[in-house]
Amino acid sequence: MSSTESNWFTEAYEPSGSSIGFRVTERLHAEKTPFQTIEIYDSTDWGKLMVIDGCMMLTARDNFLYHEMIAHPALFTHARAKRVVIIGGGDCGTLREVLRHEEVEHAVQVEIDERVTRLAEKYFPELCEANGDPRAELRFDDGIRYMAECEPESVDVVIVDSTDPVGPAEGLFNAAFYASCFKALRPAGLLVQQSESPLAHLELIKSMRIAMRSAGFQAVKTLPFPQPCYPTGWWSCTMARKGADLSGFRERGAATKQFATRYYNADIHRAALALPEFMREALGE
Known about the structure:
Layout: E1 2-3, E2 8-13, E3 18-32, E4 37-43, E5 48-52, E6 55-59, H1 63-77, E7 83-88, H2 93-98, E8 106-110, H3 114-123, E9 136-139, H4 143-148, E10 155-161, H5 175-184, E11 185-194, H6 202-214, E12 219-226, E13 234-241, H7 251-255, H8 266-272, H9 277-283
Parallel strand pairs: 7-8, 7-10, 8-9, 10-11
Antiparallel strand pairs: 1-2, 2-3, 3-4, 4-5, 5-6, 11-13, 12-13
């Protein structure tokens, strides 16, 4: 549920009895696509905002936290990811982060709603800097079908950068989808998916991890990180690996990376692998 009274955009999150708000100056765009309603606002302190179906998707000020953490931990965990598939990710920020890795030879972004990308190109051009990279492929298609039809053992990393598990994204959070990802991944390949708030959605995280294991993934790890524009201000991504563990990553590579980041570094990666006690207890770690 959301409202825009008194120059504030407010998203009320009923399950946690809380809300988050942003002082806005104007609504720049609004449209209903065949899949969802997309709104773009300008704000006094957070830059432009993208809202989908009344839920905050990104702000210009803090999106780097999410985009860096859903991309770099997985790519620095993999020995050398050459082919990456991004399911969702229509704002293109994750694609930009993936293509900072020179070893990536091809990255396909499969977004069901082309309007998300076209609006990002207009209002968030900084997120779309890599769209013209010759290694990038933009596809506007059903990500569930795309993964089901993927050639077996043809992908190194699958990144699921989706909205909440309702509407078009609902089918991305179950064992059948994870089984498609498992089949498409090469040995030691990685699946990483945004997994909501550890404070508000712990049961969802538990169910995702169970479904990932039932699909064949041997190792599963959830990494929390701050995300001020989302409910509770705390978010996570969950990694699952095919036929290998998740006990380490390429620390030297992360420490000497040849590109700039604003949040991610080797120490942040190491710290994100450590869970607070309530998560360790709930997730059996």
